[in-house]
Amino acid sequence: MGLRETNPAGFSNHTVSLRPCWQTFIPTSAQVSAVHQPGRFRFTLDNDILTTEQRQFYEDNGYLLIRKLVSDEDIERFRKEFIRICKKEVRVPGAMIMKNEALRSQYGQTESVVNKVQDFQENEELFRYCTLPQILKYVECFTGPNIMAMHTMLINKLPDSDKQTFLHPMHQDLHYFPFRPADRIVCSWTAMQRADENNGCLVVLPGTHTLPLKPHGYPEWEGKTNKLFHGILDYNEKSPKVHLVMEKGDTVFFHPLLIHGSGINKTSGFRKSISCHFASSDGHYIDVKNTTQADLEKELQEMVHKRYDMPALELKDIWTFRARVVQGERINL
After folding, report:
1. N or C: which end of the chain has fewer CB within 10 A?
2. Where in this chain does the entry annotate a coiled-coil region (predicted)?
């Protein structure tokens, strides 16, 4: 079963750019740099959005689920735009589109073939998700007022039976990110339809956001592993897990060190979600050389060079191209 990635590094074919003048690169270890807040809470900021109970839950568990945050109307608009992308009615510059090529002869250019659209920051309709006021008001509780949209995805988990084709092993998102501090980064993940154990909902390990960044790599399991679907190398399968059962419009916010993943889709339908990683623009980029993230940087450099014949870029350069300010000022990121 063949998977093809289109534009894996998030560049359009003509992208050549120098570092913007606003960037501040701080050479440092890729180990987590934390922002310590005075008082009771480390992971959330003082405002009138979150209750004390919600802040304590995130403090203890590393995630917070908000029910019915995104309207059915917005989700339907995102779904229709995804269908247009699948049919190639819309081109998304710089996006990576993951497909199951083995299904194309049967289904053609449809949603039955496309598993993921990543880096959709150049698509006005999908990127609208990252600017929704109801999303940003919660994001600000974690990042502060100056907010960057760093990483965007629309996942269409295809029916998979027992092949594990689209299974993402347990991982920490910070593994992919060359920016810090970790505590001022948050993911907003919205279910576009019901997500449960049958169709591959998110699975989290509560409280693991307090752990350091662990070494990641490709899982040692039978069958195909997807490019850049890294997992924690010393992951214990017996670790207590929570399956996040969510209805359409429900949104979970979680810390980039929270260990999480998703299962296979055992149904005959799809499981769609849309997400964005946000970060405080007051943060900084790091140099990942000689860290647990060095192999990831090398893998991405090889992919970019092979596809675009471009000189080797550092991981932070790749992320700079993707970043977009969505609230406040762009300071460093």
Report:
1. N
2. none
CA dist 227 and 202 (Å) reads 20
**φ/ψ (deg, to 5) at 178:** -95, 35
Is 234 part of any domain? yes
Q: Which domain holds residue 223?
A: 26-74+115-327
Q: Which residue in this structure is represented by tokens 């980029």?
A: 285
When divided into structural domains, the chain yields a total of: 1
Residue 37: inside a domain, yes or no?
yes
What pLDDT does residue 164 have?
Answer: 56
Please indicate, yes or no, if residue 3 is contained in any of the structural domains: no
Could you give the percent of the chain with pLDDT greater than 90? 62
Quote the pTM value.
Answer: 0.85
- Could you read off the pLDDT of 29-43 as tens digits, one per residue? 345 545 545 568 999
The full 3-state SS of 45-64, as one line of letters, equals: CCCCCCCHHHHHHHHHHCEE
pLDDT of residue 19: 36
Tokens representing residue 34 in the block? 């934390």
Residue 81 resides in a domain: no
Sign of CA dihedral 39, 42, 48, 51: negative
For the domain that residue 170 is a member of, what is the CATH number? 2.60.120.620
